[in-house]
């Protein structure tokens, strides 16, 4: 049986993640590409009728969400991350629009 990790434990070890939305191909997103190389990405799989769970690393899965952590994640690539708590996600900072007057 695969090892299980608690999402809260990852947040305590690696900081509060930010959710990222892919509008382009993953390799064209510089923030995601860097985070993948630095081992800071969690793929969150959402299946109807089941609890959300995560997998450490980037997995191009339809309907998945991607969380980028500020620090490196543990190297247990086969571990299933359970107990996804969306309240622990860092809110994205949206810059205010500048108005030229």
In short:
With 101 residues, this protein is α+β, with helices and mostly antiparallel strands.
Regarding quaternary structure, how should these chains be classified?
single chain
Strand content: 15-25%
Secondary-structure element string? EHEHEEEE
Largest sheet, if any?
6 strands, mixed
Shape: globular
In angstroms, what is the radius of gyration?
Answer: 15 Å
Content-based structural category: alpha+beta
Distance between the termini: 62 Å
Number of strands: 6
Name the strands of the widest sheet in spatial order. 1-6-4-3-5-2
Could you say how many structural domains there are in total? 1
Number of helices: 2
What is the helical fraction, as a range of percent? 10-25%
Low-confidence stretches: none
* Average residue pLDDT: 86
Task: Walk me through this protein's architecture.
It is a single chain. The protein has 101 residues and is an alpha+beta fold. The protein has one domain (4-88). The protein is 16% helix and 22% strand. It is built from two helices and six strands. The chain has helices spanning 7-14, 30-37, and strands at 4-6, 18-20, 41-45, 53-56, 65-68, 80-82. It starts with a strand and ends in a 19-residue tail after the last strand.
């Amino acid at each position: 049986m695969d090892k299980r990790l608690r999402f809260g434990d990852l947040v305590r070890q690696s900081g509060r993640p930010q959710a990222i939305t892919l509008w382009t191909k993953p390799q064209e997103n510089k923030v995601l590409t860097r985070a993948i190389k630095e081992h800071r990405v969690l793929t969150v799989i959402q299946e109807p009728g089941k609890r959300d769970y995560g997998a450490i690393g980037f997995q191009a899965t339809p309907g998945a969400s991607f969380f980028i952590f500020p620090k490196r994640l543990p190297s247990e690539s086969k571990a299933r991350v359970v107990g996804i708590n969306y309240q622990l996600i860092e809110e994205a900072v949206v810059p205010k629009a500048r108005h030229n007057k």
